[in-house]
Design goal:
- It is a single chain.
- By secondary structure, the chain is of the alpha/beta class.
Length: 170
């Protein structure tokens, strides 16, 4: 087992050191359709928080409604498939919610895909769907796309490092 898999939090209650965690825990208890972006330095738990939030919502794999897509794999065809088909299907297990995690959104270099996402988040969001994008920095993205997301900032300061080391027993 890889070290990061062994220590990756399985739930938001296992996460430490980020100010946005209490808001995410409240959201997991009473979800609603929304797009969120988790932004911060590498290694601060953005993807871990996204998968933990999905798990807390009952989405742990593709059968229970979890889809994880690296942004470099996003094409117009893949976006259409996700927003017009996959995210509209009822999961075979879980809570009935879909969680789409788009990893490292800043590497989505296609302006066409960014424009499609902007429109899809406004007009094609399924009823029981949460879209979570992770990003090390949004400065290279279309500002109109970034506005479609609720923003959560992850920090990589000494306080975070201490909380993470304490959690790992170091």
């Amino acid at each position: 087992m890889r070290l990061w898999d062994k220590h990756r939090p399985k739930s938001l209650t296992e996460m430490v050191g980020q100010p946005c965690l209490s808001a995410l825990r409240k959201f997991a208890a009473d979800p609603y359709p929304v797009a969120m972006i988790f932004e911060g330095p590498p290694g601060t738990g953005k993807t871990a928080a996204a998968t933990a939030l999905a798990a807390d919502m009952g989405c742990v794999d593709e059968w229970s409604g979890l889809d994880v897509v690296p942004s470099v794999d996003l094409t117009i065809e893949r976006c259409r498939e996700l927003f017009e088909r996959t995210l509209r299907l009822i999961p075979m297990s879980g809570s009935g919610w879909h969680v789409l995690i788009i990893e490292e959104l800043e590497f989505c270099s296609s302006g066409t895909v960014q424009r499609y996402l902007k429109v899809a988040l406004d007009t094609k969001m399924p009823r029981k769907c949460v879209v979570i994008a992770t990003s090390n920095g949004t400065s290279g993205l279309d500002p109109a796309l970034v506005q479609r997301f609720d923003h959560f900032t992850f920090r990589g300061d000494d306080e975070f490092a201490k909380a993470a080391a304490d959690r790992l027993g170091m």
